[in-house]
User: What shape does this take?
Amino acid sequence: MTIELLERNTSTDDELVIIREFTVPKSLVFNALTDHGHIKKWSSPKNYDVTFSEGKLKVGGKYSYGMQSGEGPELVMTGEYKEIDRPDKIVYTQSRIDAPSSETEISITLEEHDGKTMMVFHHTGFPSKEFRDGAVHGWNEAFGKLETHLTWLSQMVLRATRGENIETVRKLVRFFEQKRIDEFAELFSENAKLIQPFSSGLFPAVIEGRNEIRDTIQNFASNFDDIRFPIEEIFPLEDPRRVVMKHTGKLRKSNGKGIYENDYIGIYSFDENGKIMEWIEYNNPITAAKAFGLVDKILQLKDGSILRDYLSFEKFENHLTSQICDLLIIARERNIETVRNFVNLLEQRRFDEFADLFSENAKWIHPFNSGMFPYEAIGRNDIRNAIQDAASNFDDIRFPIEEILPLEDPRRIVMKHTGKLKVSNGQGIYENDYLAIYSFDQEGKITEWIEYYNPINAAIAFGLIEKIKE
Assistant: This one.
C-alpha cells in the first residue's frame, strides 16, 4: 500500500488530494466506495463506527450516513451524487446535516494497472485550513479501514472465483462426456483458444474461436460411442483465474474399433466473466497417432523438420491479496527458488547439487514415455544417475523457463519451459517443450517430479522413431 498526500493549491487551503493504491481490481474498489453494506465497514475515522448508510446511487440521488464514537454524539453526513461513471469515477457533495452551509465536493477517480487500482481522492471547498487538516486525518484513517475491508473482500471474491472456475472445468469434462456440445461451447469466450503444444503437425496446434472449438470437439466426439475422462486431480493455482487439471481418457471407438486411451493435462485460463479464454492441452501424441492411424505421418518427420510453435504465454500476476500465514508464503517462495535452481544446476551439470534438491525416495515420472524411455526413476541416486547419463549425450544444455505457476497449495509448483540441447559430435540441436509438476516435502525437498514432453520430438532426436511402430 502506498500513501501520498498532495496539496494542489497550497495558497487557498481549501482542498486536499489523497492517493491510495489497492492491490485489487477497480470494480471491487468502486463497489466498496458506493455500496451501503460496504460503506458501513469503513467510512469513518479509526475510533468511530458507521451507524447507518442509505441512499440511491444515481445522478441527483441523495445519500446519508452516520458515525459515532462510543457514547458520543452521532455525526450525520449527507450529500448528492453529481457524476457516476462506473467503475471509473464518482463525484458527490458532502456536508454535516447540522451544518448545511459547510458543503464540500468530493471527486474520486480509479485507474487499474496490472490488477492494482490507483485511487485519486480529491476533496474541495473547505472553509479553512484547520477544517481541511482534520479531514486529512479522518480520511486517511478511514482509507486504512477501507484497505482492511478490501483485503477481506478480495479473499471472498478469490475463493468464489476459484471455486466457480473449478466447477467450470468439471462441467467441461461432464459436457464432453455427455456430448452436450452446445453447452460445452458456452463455457468458452467468443475468441477463446485451444492450444495443443504437442501436436507435432499431426493435429492443429492452435484452434481459435468458440465456434471453431465447438466444431472441432463435435467432430472428434463423433468418432466414439462412449467417452470417459476420469479426473485424477485438479490443481487450483495461486491466481484464481487459472486452473490445472490432470485426467485420463478412455473412449470407445465407433463400430467396435476398440478403446482409445491417453493421459491429459490441461491449463485453463478464465476471463472476468468466468469464461474459458485459453485451454492448453497436453496429451501423448504418439498414443493419439496410433489410435487415429497417423503413425506413418510421424515416420515422415524423421527426415523433415519438426513442426513446433514457439508460443509466448502471458505472465500472470496474482491480482488479489492472498492472506495466508507467513510460513506458507515463505514455503512457496522457497519452492519456486528450488525450481529455478533445478534448471540452473542441470544446465551447469552440477549433478551432486542437483540431486541434493530431491528427497531420498523421490520419484521422476514420464507419463508420455510411450515405452521408449523408463516410465519412472525412484530414489535420489537413481534420478541423479539417469540425469547424468542423459546429459552425457549433449555438449550444451539450455532450458529457458517460460512460466512458473505457483499452485494454491504452496507444496506444489508447475513450470513450463522449453529445451534447446546441442547433441554431442555435431549431431544437431534437440528441441522440445516441457510441462513439469513438482511436489515438495516440509524440508523443501522435491518428492515428485512429473515431466511431460513431446515424445515424438524425443524419439526423433534419439533415433527411436522406428520404436513408435511397436
Summary: Residues 172-303 form a domain with the Nuclear Transport Factor 2; Chain: A, fold (CATH 3.10.450.50). The chain has three domains: 3-156, 172-303, 326-469. Residues 1-11, 302-327 have pLDDT under 50 and may be disordered. The chain has eleven helices and 22 strands.
